[in-house]
Predict the 3D structure of the following.
Amino acid sequence: METVPFKVDFLWVIDQTPFFVFIFSLNIFLAITATLGNTLILIALHKVSSIHPPTKCLLRCLAISDFCVGVIVQPLFAAFLIRIATGKWHIVYLTLSTFNFTFCGLSFATATAISVDRLLALLLGLRYRHTVTLRRVRCLIVCFLLASIVIGFIYSLSSRDFANSAGFVVIITSLFLSVFSHVKIRLKLQQHQARVRQQHAGHEQSTAGAISLNIERYKKIVSTMALVQLALVFCYFPLFIFLTLATTTNWLKTGSIFHSSSLTVVYFNSTLNPILYCWKIREIREAVKTTVKQQINTCHAR
């Protein structure tokens, strides 16, 4: 007896007018918020001097990739939704896929690199500044970017299955490294706190106070990146399910409701990240407030 697949998965977005209007409008709105939010974060990172340059470079790279999602990827996705109606959507979709792999892959890899960077800062101590240099971090970012572009072109021009498999490997490796880094950081911080509690002499208390101050700043960045990566997992999970089912079955297709919804959730991550930065990192929050106030005063002056 022939079974009928779950029908909603076969529905094209364009065939469902209310849903098409909703998903199209939502992506336009998210494109604006991602662009504005990450612009403010980039300005704030330029003003903040308390964050170590290599770490700031990684945060800036993450903000730039989220900015590009708002400026390039989401308008392309909106164009793809419109082109579905004409049946001439393949070229737009191939371009969209290339940029998806490039900027979303760069975001995933950079977030993982920040977690590893924070672990190295804890393990290396004074050697960290000599080991993790700005030049090395920039080279790493260029490697991430080139790898993401190559996978995107492979998906668009030749083997989609190979590109999807490479994407799965990147996601799983990134998740493993992130979880390992955060678990190791937590264990090391617990050991550090136990040593601080054992210090009773006056000189030792003074030193412990200075270390505690640095540790508090360190914890803020670590907790922020933990939230950023949880948000990444949450936002990318529907797309991960879609790619798995699309690769292994014929139940889902490009342009279906599930496909469009999962991509929209991925793009929402670019709006969510600036909110997490402002919420958890006080220096960035204050710099963003200052920038917004300056722009409001400038508008009033005109």
Observations:
- The chain has nine helices and no strands.
- Residues 202-248 form the longest helix (47 residues).
- Residues 1-10, 204-213 have pLDDT under 50 and may be disordered.
